[in-house]
Design brief:
This protein is of the alpha/beta class. It has helices at about 10-15, 15-25, 45-55, 70-75; strands at about 5-10, 30-35, 60-65, 80-85, 95-100, 105-110, 115, 140. Strands 3-2-1-4-5 form a five-stranded parallel beta sheet. Strands 6-7-8 form a three-stranded antiparallel beta sheet, with no helix packed on it.
Length: about 140
């Protein structure tokens, strides 16, 4: 298959499961589908993720848990990628088409602006609501 699709799980598939269910099932014979997540790896976590994907009706050929999504995308020849967090696709080449999922952690729907972290300049998704006590300054663009 020449079309290789990568899809992030958290705040991507989980934000709009009906779309990804329809898309993955419609594309299963036309594309190789990779589910890519940066969830914490613990004993049994991959089995739990597979169960969650089954419950959501998501079709996939490959599942990977990795903190280095860009490396995996390039290594596997993924040509289309869906994610909600800029840091995972900023360094991908132009040959990878990226679809950014807009959701409440990266977009301020009330003010119609993207959320960014002033310290990094990157899209703000990973630290909102993390409960680590550190306050993040968000800039809306």
């Amino acid at each position: 298959m020449s079309l290789v699709i990568g899809i992030d799980l958290d705040d991507c598939i989980t934000y709009c499961p009906s779309f990804f269910k329809a898309m993955t099932n419609a594309m299963k014979d036309m594309a190789e589908i990779h589910i890519i997540t940066n969830r914490e790896q613990t004993p049994g976590s991959e089995a739990g993720i597979r169960e969650e994907l089954d419950e959501l009706g998501i079709f996939y050929h490959h599942l990977v848990v990795t903190g280095n999504k860009a490396e995996y995308i390039l290594e596997k020849g993924i040509t289309v990628y869906f994610d909600d967090t800029d840091e995972y696709f900023l360094n991908l080449p132009e040959s990878v088409t990226v679809f950014k999922i807009r959701e409440p952690w990266n977009f301020d729907f009330e003010n119609h602006k993207w959320r960014y972290n002033e310290k990094t300049g990157h899209n703000q998704t990973a630290h909102l609501g993390c409960g680590d006590g550190e306050k993040e300054t968000l800039k809306l663009f």
